[in-house]
Structure formats: C-alpha cells, structure tokens
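User: Sequence in, structure out. Go.
Assistant: Echoing your sequence, followed by the structure tokens.
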Amino acid sequence: MPDADVSPFPEPLVAIVFDLDGTLVLSHHDFGRMWGEAIRVAEKHGVFPGRLSATQPIARIMDQARTELEAQNVPEGTIFRMEAEVHALVDRIELEALPGTISRPHAARLLAALAGRGYRLAILTRSCEAFCRGALFQTGLLDYFPNLRSRSAPGPAKPSPEALLLLLTEMEVPAARALFVGDHALDAECATRARVTFAGVLPDPTEPSDMTAEKFRAAGAVATATDLADLGRLLRVLPEPAMARPA
C-alpha cells in the first residue's frame, strides 16, 4: 500500500479527464458483434480475409484496416466510406446498450466530491456522442461534464494523444496539470503519448477484462485504484474506509 501521506499525483492538479464506458458507466456493449461487423465491412471494401483480428479493440481493427487498404493503393474515398460505414454500425450497436447502462458504483459520490473541490471535469471516450450524452444523462452524471470529446468529434479520436490534447486545449488546462483516468490499456496509451499523468481503475467485477495493476503500471500509470471510491481516496477527496471495531 502507498504511504497515505504521499500523493502519487503531481501537484497541483486542476483537471481530471475520465474515460466513460467501464470507468464511470457500465453498459455491457456487444463488443463481439462490433468487432465482427467492423471486420465484415473492412473485408467488403477490400481488406484480405484473415488479416484482421476479432480479439482487438475497434480502434486497432480500424487502424489495421486502413493500413491494409493503403498498402493496396485503395483510393482514400473508399477508405473513408469503409470507416463511415463501420462507425455507423458501431454507433447503432452502442445505442442498443443504452437502456441497460448504469453508473459504476461510487461514480456520483466521487464526481460530487471532485466538483466540490473545484476540479474541472471532462470526458474523453471512443463512444459516439449520442451514447455518451445519453449514458451520462441516464445515470445522472451529465451536469458534471461541461467538456467532453467523443468518437463523433471532428479530428483524431482516442487513443490518439491529439484527442486528449485538443480536449485540454478547449478546457484551457496545461497537460502537466491534468490527470486522465481509465480502465483500459488504450486509455493509458493515450495519456502517456500525450504526456498526461494517467491513473488506472481496475475493471468492475461484472466486466470481462484482463487488466491488472501490473499491466497498468507497465503501461505508464502512476497509480491504480481498485474502484472509484479507492480513486477518491487516492485523490484525497473521499475518506478512508472506517476501521472495523474489534468484537
């Protein structure tokens, strides 16, 4: 356990950017269907069968699909149509999960405490804009986030470091004064490439994931919390759990 008197974060932080799905909300997207549809569309537009892996995140699948098509000198217009079709399909699958989306335990408590301390809060997500705003509204968290950047925003998307840096520019926050929080290796990659401090939150027990504290540390995280209440304790905005009294 880290020393309770030593903060793992650079001081003073002024802004905290959160990933959305898996970090603040739990939606249980049908990722297998997303991956399958992305590969089907990519192959329809010319990617050779068997070149894309359904075990990778959508971001990796799409990057590889673009690389494969560029290597074949496929016109940019064809690649753009492929990407647009995949995004539309993924958007639809995401929105199907919206009715069952819930907040992750302690999310509202943590955000209220951070807002009460004056932190500027934002969302950086690979979800589409409609799902992002719908999930935040449905879970009662939307008012905490005047700034958010989704996959639907113009320009690069996470895990590109530019996506995070553009968001921080909009917030008028220097990268050195921000913290990015997420539950996936892509979140850590985005933050470290942008030279923004990163903290990992271990996946909720209901989420299929192999992320561990060791993997977050290897990816560049300065700290890893077991859940959002633990993150609040690391940030010193939530109290330590009460010690059980001896019988």
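User: And one key feature?
Assistant: The mean pLDDT is 90.
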